[in-house]
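Justification of computing resources. Each target in the renewal requires a structure prediction run like the one illustrated here; the chain below, 155 residues long, is used simply to show the kind of job we budget for.
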Amino acid sequence: MHQIRPARSADAPAIAALLAGIGWFGVYEATTPAQATAHVRSLIESAADRSLLLVAEHADQGLCGYCAVHWLPTAIIQGWEAYLSELFVAESARSLGLGHGLLAAAVQAARERDCLRIWLVNNRQRSSYERGFYTKQGWSEQAQMARFVLPLAPL
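Resulting structure tokens:
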């Protein structure tokens, strides 16, 4: 059994530990757990109306999933869209429906805000891409687009 709910400040240590435990993000290697927790807590507290941070709690494993969705005004579609920037589930909790639950909650929140679409970026080398997680949820890959990034600070 699991629960999907908005993140609270008290969830910061568990979210930081989840992201550090995934092992993909250098910023977690470069900071102490206390520093990472403080940064995550600050993000949770400042998200307000522009973002929704969600967590997934499993009855046996505790907090083991995290998702962030953001609201963007988009003139080319003449309305709002949602951008799902992060969706992570601890490896030990995969296949329990947490990713599906987080994704469904993000889509529902976007609908409630009258967004015209929701989008995300998925690394083709990630297991979620390789096993077709998003396509199985009804999402389609937009192959004609390229993702460009300009780092504004060291990551």
